[in-house]
Amino acid sequence: MLGEFEYLLLSAAARLGEGAYGAAIRREIEGATKRRCSIGALYTTLDRLEAKGLVRTWMGDSTPQRGGRPKRMVRVTGEGVREAKAFYRAVNRASRGVSWAAD
Amino acid sequence: MRLGWWLLSVLARALEPAERDVVLGDLAESGEGVGAATRNLLGLIVRRQVGLWLFWRPWLALFGVSCLAGLSLSRIVFRLNVDLYKYAAHYATTLTARQEVAFLLCLASALTVWSWTCGFVLGSLSGRAVWLTWSVFYFVVLDSALARYVLAGNIILRDPRTHETPLDSLQGALRLLMATTLPLSIAALLFLLPALLGAFVGVRRRVLTVHHAYLIAAVNSALTILTTWSTGWYDPAHLPARWPGVPWSTRLLPFLLASWPAAYLLACSLPTGSRPKDQTPLQPTPEP
User: Fold this and answer.
1) In chain A, how many H helices and how many E strands?
2) I want to staple B237 with a disulfide (CB 3.0 to 4.6 A). Which of A58, B5, B25, B93 is the partner?
3) Which among B78, B280, B144 is positioned nearest to A51, based on CA atoms?
4) Selection from A6, A12, A103, A84 nearest residue A50 by Cα
5) Closest residue in chain A to residue B15, using alpha carbons only
6) How far apart, in whole angstroms, are the C-alpha atoms of residue B117 and residue B73?
7) Is residue B287's pLDDT more than 80?
8) Which ipTM score applies to this complex?
9) DSSP string over A31-70
């Protein structure tokens, strides 16, 4: 079972698709949760997800905006999609009949 | 502002090179201020440092090299200091000048080689945690022998005018710690420089080639045997009451403790050995 932050990261990476990399995922998470996302939490969670085989990462291109430094590109694997689906369904099932889910 | 980002890039050196570039790029792209960027970077560094200690290698470096080999090296540094500086006084022994010089050369060479080997293994095992394991190693080697002798009462440090010992006050204890911790003697330098160089090389290379490992192991073994043998005639000639004739196996043990990292180096270099790997998961990989 995924953790909450792992699910947020997988969702952000899946939404960004080909453009998923560290800084973009961080922006997505901050936009979705309206909370700060630290680089430490992002990269250690990314390592954990990669170790579990839920994402694949590689070094991408650099841009002048980044001072010529490379990006760490992210792609959600098939296993990652299955895990994220299972987490989403579990949250849905657990939320049935609760007052805040009716809004 | 520029100074702040320069400091940030210096701080980022605590990360693995591949991750360092990615993180600095992310921080530049995010447009955060230096303060927020520093907090973010420090958070990642702390997480990475803690993560290193989830593996057994830094623990082996800390207890096996910094503490165990360090305690043994500390006694050797201490005795080499005493043996070198005793020439200020006259010692009536049956030893010839050649024997004296041979023993001191033997012990000094052994200290240099053992320090380099310990430093290399510290760097190889600890990786980015080397700053901690090496600092502990440094303090153990330069301070533990003196501390043990002082606490056991073998050495009494007393000011001849006031009759106070440095341990009577915090200020005195700190001054003593400073004096013993700074590498102010030949023996301390014979430890410090090779140990620093060894750690530097160890962090970068992690494993030696088989030929180099055999060479280091052979030199370590030869010096261990020579030092054990020479203490057999050197010690009883100087302090017959204290060392009337200690068996070779008892003399060998502390030297074995100081030189065991050479055996580890050799084991790692053999084709079937367990090679230390980079413990940070991020590695540049080709695009899938």
Assistant:
1) 4, 2
2) B93
3) B280
4) A6
5) A40
6) 12
7) no
8) 0.89
9) HHHSS---HHHHHHHHHHHHHTTSEEEEEEEE-GGGTTPE
Chain B hits for A67, CB-CB cut-off 8 Å, are 24-25, 28
User: Is the minimum CB–CB distance between A26 and chain B shorter than 8 Å?
Assistant: yes
**A44/B51 Cβ within 8 A:** yes
Instruction: Compute the distance between CA of residue B205 and CA of residue B175 in angstroms, rounded to an integer.
Output: 38
Mean pLDDT of the residues in chain B = 83
pLDDT tens-digit readout, B63-72 = 999 999 999 9
Is B35 part of the contact surface with chain A (CB cutoff 8 Å)? no
Tell me which amino acid residue B224 is: T
Q: How far A28 CA lies from chain B's nearest CA (Å)?
A: 12
Count other Cβ atoms within 10 Å, centred on residue A54. Answer: 23
From chain A residues 27-66, the ones with a CB under 8 A of any chain B CB are 27, 38-41, 43-44, 47, 50-51, 56-60, 62-63, 65-66
Q: Which residues of A touch B285 (CB under 8 A)?
A: 57-59
pLDDT of residue A76: 97
Contact call for residues B119 and B205 (beta carbons, < 8 A)? no
CB contact under 8 A, B41 and A39: yes
Inter-chain CB proximity B43 and A38 less than 8 Å: yes
- CA–CA distances in Å: residue A77 to residues A80, B63, B116: 5, 41, 46
CA quadruple B138, B143, B148, B151: dihedral sign: negative
Task: Indicate yes or no: CB of B282 within 8 angstroms of CB of A67.
Answer: no
Which residue, A59, A97, A87, A91, is CA-closest to A75? A59
With b for 16 or more beta-carbon neighbours within 10 A and e for fewer, the B187-220 pattern comes to bbebbbebbbebbebbbeebbbeeeebeebbebb
Chain A residues with CB under 8 Å of B278 CB are none
C-alpha distances (whole Å) from B70 to each of A103, B15, B77, B234, B260 are 65, 27, 10, 23, 11
Q: Is A76 helix (H, G, I), strand (E, B) or coil?
A: strand
Phi, psi of B198 (to 5 degrees): -60, -45
In B, minimum Cα distance to A39 occurs at B40
B24 CB neighbours in chain A (<8 A) are 67, 69
CB burial of residue B236 (10 Å; 0-12, 13-18, 19+): middle
